[in-house]
């Protein structure tokens, strides 16, 4: 599910920004070309619900490295665009809506966090059930049916 969400986020960004901006899906310490994006999973939470239902919550950080780190305008523009295009993403088997966004600009880099949750049904292994069970019950010797 993690990779599926990361790929969905990357597709949404590519849809808006084409291939003009590189998108990194793993941590890159140095050697990247700006402007670019980086997608990092921040946290995951799995909660058991009723019977087979599981609530999975994921938080992702999407970093935008502008071409000019002194330009807060470029970061602010990217922030609004990211809020719009990451509100609803399509994974391989479902559409996820982000229910919580946060954005902060630190040292000229925009960091947008988005939370997604999915309620899924977990497959449960079932064992083969007997087809027919027959049983006969007879009274003990000495017991009468009359009482």
From TrEMBL:
What protein name is recorded for this chain? Phage protein
Q: Which organism is it from?
A: Acetitomaculum ruminis DSM 5522
């Amino acid at each position: 599910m993690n990779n599926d969400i990361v790929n969905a986020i990357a597709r949404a960004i590519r849809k808006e920004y084409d291939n003009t901006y590189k998108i990194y899906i793993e941590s890159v310490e140095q050697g990247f070309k700006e402007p670019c994006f980086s997608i990092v999973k921040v946290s995951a939470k799995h909660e058991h619900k009723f019977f087979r239902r599981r609530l999975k919550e994921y938080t992702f950080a999407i970093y935008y490295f502008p071409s000019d780190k002194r330009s807060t305008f470029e970061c602010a523009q990217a922030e609004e665009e990211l809020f719009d295009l990451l509100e609803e993403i399509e994974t391989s088997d479902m559409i996820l809506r982000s229910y919580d966004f946060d954005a902060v600009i630190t040292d000229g880099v925009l960091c947008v966090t988005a939370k997604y949750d999915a309620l899924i049904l977990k497959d449960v292994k079932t064992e083969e059930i007997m087809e027919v069970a027959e049983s006969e019950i007879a009274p003990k010797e000495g017991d009468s049916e009359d009482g």
